[in-house]
């Protein structure tokens, strides 16, 4: 359970930033369109672009947080039982600054951007396309006002969010593995992405860059379903007020 409290506190903030940037940029792109027809034709294109921009911006904010999380999770056992001292998020932050400076907080940024920029565009696009498809099938009820006044279809949002999460993660698992390996490396054993991949490939084979794939995909289903449910309900609540 090492490092659990810190990601619990930071995940909500990161998602708020991500969806906030996405929503604002999408509105700006819609305003550029000169007609309703053009806006409708470019809607999916704009969603992909807005998602990619949101992923790019949030990667600079999320990278230090993920770095601290990885260090806490991969070194908590070592510190607890060898040195008898448990690391804290703030202590890890100070240690990184002391040893590596500000740049040390952005170790693994490049593979993280490969994981987040275009995949977040895919993430947002797939969610909307899946939701629109499910809304128009005979197997799922179309959105309509619920007794509580909500216009959100629970089934549509859940399945579309889960599918978007799985599909976007399938494309980026190797980048996430490389990012995590580089961030866990406090001794700077790896000089970059290619060096990290070569070292692990020679030592463990091609399977090394797909470690944890099934767990990531299994986590993506409930996590992203819950994420989009929270996003849709929060957005509706904000619109009502």
Automatic annotation (TrEMBL):
Segments passing through the bilayer? 6-23
Q: Name one Pfam family in it.
A: Mito_carr
Ranges of the Solcar repeats in the UniProt entry = 42-133, 152-237
Q: Name one GO biological process term.
A: mitochondrial L-ornithine transmembrane transport
Query: Cellular component per GO?
Result: mitochondrial membrane
Q: Which UniProt keywords apply?
A: Membrane, Mitochondrion, Repeat, Transmembrane, Transmembrane helix, Transport
The primary location reported for this protein is mitochondrion
Supply the InterPro entries for this chain.
Answer: MCP, MCP_dom_sf, MCP_transmembrane, Mitochondrial_Carrier
Q: Where in the cell is it found?
A: Mitochondrion membrane
Membrane topology label: Multi-pass membrane protein
The protein's superkingdom reads Eukaryota
User: What protein is this chain from?
Assistant: Solute carrier family 25 member 45 isoform X2
Q: Report the source organism.
A: Drosophila albomicans
């Amino acid at each position: 359970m090492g490092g659990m409290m810190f990601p619990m506190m930071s995940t909500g903030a990161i998602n708020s930033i991500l969806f906030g940037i996405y929503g604002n940029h999408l509105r700006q792109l819609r305003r550029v369109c000169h007609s309703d027809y053009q806006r409708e034709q470019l809607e999916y294109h704009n969603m992909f672009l807005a998602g990619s921009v949101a992923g790019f911006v949030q990667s600079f904010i999320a990278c230090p947080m993920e770095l601290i999380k990885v260090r806490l999770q991969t070194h908590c056992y070592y510190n607890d039982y060898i040195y008898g001292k448990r690391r804290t998020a703030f202590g890890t932050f100070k240690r990184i600054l002391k040893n590596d400076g500000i740049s040390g907080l952005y170790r693994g940024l490049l593979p993280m951007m490969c994981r987040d920029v275009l995949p977040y565009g895919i993430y947002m696009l797939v969610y909307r396309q899946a939701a629109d498809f499910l809304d128009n099938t005979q197997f799922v009820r179309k959105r309509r006002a619920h007794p509580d006044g909500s216009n959100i279809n629970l089934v549509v949002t859940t399945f579309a969010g889960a599918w978007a999460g799985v599909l976007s993660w399938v494309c980026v698992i190797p980048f996430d593995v490389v990012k995590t390996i580089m961030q866990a490396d406090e001794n700077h054993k790896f000089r970059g992405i290619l060096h990290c991949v070569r070292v692990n490939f020679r030592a463990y084979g091609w399977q090394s860059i797909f470690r944890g794939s099934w767990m990531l995909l299994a986590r993506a289903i409930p996590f992203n379903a819950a994420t989009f449910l929270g996003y849709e309900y929060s957005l509706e609540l904000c619109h009502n007020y």
